[in-house]
Amino acid sequence: MTERQHGDTESRLAGFEARLQDGFDWANAHGREIVIAIAAFLLVGGAAAGIWEWRTRDAAEGEAELARIEARFTQGMGSATGELFIAEPANAEQAKKARETALAELDAFIAAQGSSDAAKVAGLRAAEIQLDLGPLDAASKRVEALTAMFDPEDARLAVALRLQGYILEQMGNPLGAAEVYEAGAHIVAYPPRALLWIAAGDCLARANAPARAINAYRQALSSSPEVAEQEGIILRIGILQAGLDAASPPATVSGSDK
Fold it and tell me: Using CA atoms, how far apart are residues 242 and 232, in angstroms rounded to an integer?
């Protein structure tokens, strides 16, 4: 254990005391400036506190308005307010009208909110509704714009990428969808990312890329064994691996092994 050098400590204390005394001397000579500086600091601090309170209140109001839009959409679809699953009504025209109304309200909300977090959440909801409403290219453009708004590790980016991957699937591009799903699955902050690995694996399997599909399924197993087990991932891996083994040429036997 290194011994503390008293000479060094005493030198540092002496220097600190000298700087402290210099500070007192400066304060005595500049009392008026200090009072002005303190007043300015308190003013800025008060303004900052006011801005923080305003932003907090504004965020709460934004969330409340989003909840009202969602409630009106749920009712328009013929479901009870607060239900997690909104059933598709038998009347297709009713569903179309409810989605168009909700989309218009969300777009107006986004325009009013600018780049706030509430606007980003509204953008994700609008993209979901746009996807159900169609056309796919309009939904794709909306989601692409959304992906540029989030930080790389933001869980909401994974939600946007999940939507983008689904759109690419519907457009008949399973390989592109798989790559997007994999990008979302790498965002650790997104809790159900195992589902993105599974979606990537499914797309790769359909695209005749079994080795890559197996790797994606194994990533799902690693990130959430429980979810992977529920989705029967071990069985899927086994089926794909059996296909790979059957397609592999038999190993040649050398003369020395005969």
Answer: 16
